[in-house]
Design goal:
By secondary structure, the protein is α+β, with helices and mostly antiparallel strands. It contains 17 helices and 12 strands. Residues 149-381 form the Transposase IS204/IS1001/IS1096/IS1165 DDE domain.
């Protein structure tokens, strides 16, 4: 038997047994406590023993359980009893600190059930270790509030989740467990330096708008243009399907085969695609009218100003053929309900395309790890310090420095103080780098 089998300086191995392929190790501490843990007195007497089962890292592929013969002491000075401390054991759980550290790192990748099978630790306990680790990671990160904030949703694990991005940098800065107004408003209310935000880009989800208006009063809200244009293409595709139902199989397959032609701008079509569109104009006049209407709606977003865009929309609305008006009904209703925020695009020219890209990457990460919980997925993407995480130096001035800066500013001075240690603040997760890491299997 190797007395140093555990490689723990505070314990000595007494016996090793094989129990159904697992190692059960009996051990004892080498040094008894010198003082009472309650009063500090050195006047101690033995007061019994107990056996504690501690989980440790696997050895040679075998799960390890350590039975520590723990001594109990009574202090003659204060009369209180205590068990001898176990330096190598985690304060909160019956496992070694090295196993806890190992589980913290591993819990971001394999499922909890797999780690439970490898170590013998219960999956619920591993979940609690992960929760503590994720909270520590979160506490160690401070995210910079962006000037242009993007809010969108991604459907993960049977639920829509709110995703926040720094639009100018195209960095993900937060993922929330749902997209309810209360959850979104709480996050926005807790943002530091909310005065930095000069614009918020959202999709047409009313709780986002309500939460932003309540927590960020006066900040312009812009409906992402891609969501609006997507509705125009969706209307055209719905009509294509309706028309296709009435056609013989051969023509229906042709319409299906060239469905990608309809969403494209006419200027982007090649000669073959334009010819196909001309053929449809003879066979499907309603579809041709709808395609022209779609093109006219897209032209609205080429307007140089808000007033010109509003004028173009009024003219487009008035020119819609009654035959296809119902086709664009959802788009007309959306524009009526969100007109102010839709037209705000022409004042600020911001889009949520960055958030749309992040959603695709988040789905890719989910596909790589079936069985992840949302919390694990969020920690893996957002909290873990991987290659896509961008940090920058940050100085957090203390109270005295803030006052001194105000006095210096009043006197016309602008010299920074050198007595505050620099920190780091997170800018978020770079989406393009995140994609590279996913393709390499590094996340």
């Amino acid at each position: 038997m190797n007395p140093d089998l555990l490689n723990l300086s505070s314990d000595r191995v007494l016996q090793v047994e094989d129990a159904d392929g697992d190692d059960q190790i009996k051990a004892e501490t080498l040094s008894p406590p010198g003082r009472c843990v309650h009063c500090g007195s050195i006047d101690l007497v033995g007061f019994g023993r107990r056996e504690q089962w501690i989980r440790d890292l696997p050895i040679h592929g075998k799960r390890v359980g350590i039975a520590v013969d723990t001594r109990r002491f009574r202090c003659k000075s204060c009369g209180r009893t205590f068990y001898e401390p176990l330096p190598a054991v985690d304060d909160k759980r019956l496992m070694t600190t090295r196993l806890k550290t190992w589980l913290e790192k591993k819990s971001l990748r394999p499922p909890f059930s797999q780690l439970a099978e490898e170590t013998g630790v219960g999956a619920l306990t591993i979940r609690k270790v992960f929760d503590d680790c994720a909270q520590d990671l979160k506490d160690s990160l401070s995210f910079e509030t962006p000037e242009v904030l993007g809010i969108d949703a991604v459907h993960l694990i049977r639920r829509s989740r709110a995703v926040f991005t720094n639009i100018p940098s195209c960095f993900v800065i937060e993922m929330l467990p749902d997209r309810n107004k209360t959850t979104v408003a709480r996050y926005l209310a807790d943002l530091p330096d909310k005065g930095r935000i000069r614009c918020v880009a959202i999709d047409m989800w009313r709780p986002y708008q309500d939460a932003a208006r309540e927590t960020l009063p006066g900040v312009p809200i812009v409906v992402d243009k891609f969501h609006v244009l997507k509705m125009a293409n969706a209307a055209l595709d719905t009509l294509r399907k309706t028309v296709g139902v009435t056609l013989p199989p051969e023509k229906r397959r042709s319409l299906m085969r060239y469905r990608h032609v309809l969403p494209k701008r006419f200027s982007d079509l090649n000669e073959v695609q334009r010819k196909r569109l001309d053929e449809w104009s003879r066979d499907f006049p309603a579809l041709t009218k709808a395609h022209q209407a779609k093109e006219g709606f897209f032209d609205i977003y080429e307007a140089p100003s808000r007033s010109d865009a509003e004028k173009r929309y009024r003219e487009w609305d008035a020119s819609l053929d009654p035959e296809i008006r119902t086709t664009f009904g959802p788009l007309l209703t959306a524009f009526q309900n969100w007109e102010g925020s839709i037209l705000a695009y022409f004042d600020h020219r911001v889009t949520n395309a960055c958030t749309e890209s992040s959603n695709n990457l988040i789905r890719a990460v989910q596909r790589m790890g079936r069985g992840y919980s949302f919390d694990v997925l969020r920690a893996r993407i957002l909290l873990n310090r991987h290659g896509a995480h961008r940090m920058k130096p940050f100085r957090r001035p203390g109270f005295m420095e803030k006052n001194r800066r105000e006095d210096d500013r009043a006197l016309g001075y602008g010299l920074p103080s050198a007595d505050i240690e620099p920190e780091e603040i997170s800018l978020g997760v770079d989406i393009s780098t995140l994609l590279d890491l996913i393709e390499k299997g590094a996340i």
